[in-house]
């Protein structure tokens, strides 16, 4: 899967912004860039009323799978999946996902679990935890 990357911040309610469309991945710009020390976080939609989103198959990732992120400067960072976890939105571990674990990691976040038709929202989030493998600059 390949998708454009946009920068995200905090919304007025101090919650993390989410991408405005289902076709882009958002990088939480108040945290580290993928490959820097700390937990970089990418967010994407699982779906919408019109169909699958960019992270529709995120929950299918398995430990050992490789995730690549191409940065604006052309560097390609590589991460290996450690685990895939589902958290209810009421027990989402903000500090675990957004806080530093003392290494270079990348966490991918999307919605999951049961869908609440009354609110129009999923009741859980899927988080893919990864660890840094390498970074290389592709020749121009």
Mind explaining what this structure looks like?
The protein has one helix spanning 94-98, and strands spanning 5-8, 25-28, 38-43, 47-48, 51-52, 66-70, 75-88, 104-116, 121-137. By secondary structure, it is mainly beta. The chain has a single domain (5-137), classed as Sortase, Chain: A, CATH 2.40.260. Strand 6 (66-70) and strand 7 (75-88) form a beta hairpin. The longest helix is centred in the last third of the chain and has 5 residues, at 94-98. It is globular, with a radius of gyration of 15 Å.
Descriptive tags:
seven-stranded mixed beta sheet, globular, about 140 residues, Sortase, Chain: A, single chain, mainly beta
Strand content: over 45%
Number of strands: 9
The number of domains is: 1
CATH architecture grouping: Beta Barrel
Helical proportion? under 10%
Evaluate the radius of gyration.
Answer: 15 Å
Shape category: globular
What's the CATH class label? Mainly Beta
- Judged by helices, strands and strand pairing, the structural class is mainly beta
Provide mean pLDDT, rounded: 94
Number of helices: 1
| Low-pLDDT stretches | none
Lateral arrangement of strands in the main beta sheet: 1-2-3-8-9-7-6
- The CATH topology name reads Sortase, Chain: A
CATH superfamily label: Sortase
Order of helices and strands: EEEEEEEHEE
Rounded to the nearest angstrom, the distance between the terminal CA atoms is 22 Å
Described by strand count, sense and barrel closure, the largest sheet is: 7 strands, mixed
């Amino acid at each position: 899967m390949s998708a454009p990357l946009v920068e995200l911040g905090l919304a007025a309610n101090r919650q993390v912004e989410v991408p405005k469309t289902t076709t882009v991945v958002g990088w939480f710009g108040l945290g580290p860039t993928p490959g820097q020390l700390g937990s970089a976080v990418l967010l994407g939609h699982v779906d919408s009323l019109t169909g699958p989103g960019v992270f529709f198959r995120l929950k299918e990732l398995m430990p050992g799978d490789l995730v690549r992120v191409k940065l604006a400067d052309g560097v390609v960072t590589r991460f290996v999946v450690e685990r895939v976890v589902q958290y209810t939105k009421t027990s989402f571990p903000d500090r675990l996902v957004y806080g530093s674990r003392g290494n270079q990691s990348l966490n991918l976040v999307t919605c999951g679990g049961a869908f609440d038709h009354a609110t129009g929202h999923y009741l859980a989030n899927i988080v893919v935890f990864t660890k840094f493998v390498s970074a290389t600059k592709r020749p121009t």
